[in-house]
Specification:
Elements lengths: L1 H19 L8 H7 L8 H16 L15 H28 L14 H32 L11 H12 L4 H20 L7
Amino acid sequence: MKRTRILIVAIGILIGNTYQSYAYKILYAEQFYKLFHQHLYQYPERISENIGYLQNALKADFANPLYALAKIPDKQHWERYRYLFKMHVNLKILEQVLLWGSKYQKMASYFFNAPWWRENLESLDQAEALFRSALPYWEEAKTWSSKAAPLSFLHMEEIQAWEDENYRIETGDLDYQVIIQEHLNRVERVRAAFQKMDATTY
């Protein structure tokens, strides 16, 4: 009897909470961006989920400037904000894609990996495909960065990190072309080593 009463109370609380909670439709770029989050454990499906949110953020309309992620006092700030947002989101997608690729990357080929050389080569193929798919996001990030650069005299404290990214891209301090190429070079080196393996390797 006591158990039944506890169960009824629990169901009542659950129904009450459900009744009180109202869902809202996600429409705007900023709303999709806020769904992006860092996981403690970076599993591919969670990375994919984040990429989906960020890609939707790029496709969606911006919210009214009143609801922007920074204070927007005039049209010039609004223009710079949108450029920086697009730049930053492309960088975030790029970072997530590289993280995903790293799950399949092999840092070296050891003799004891020889029994699984085929599986390792397949894994390297997946890593390479992901690394290459990051390149268009870098090109997009650079495009939006170059649009934002002429307005760099405008400062928005809330998104200073985005402004820093803009500055680093424009000065060449941040160059994902180089980083991605390093990943691809490593894939090629390790792949060549696996391809040389034969029955005498292990």
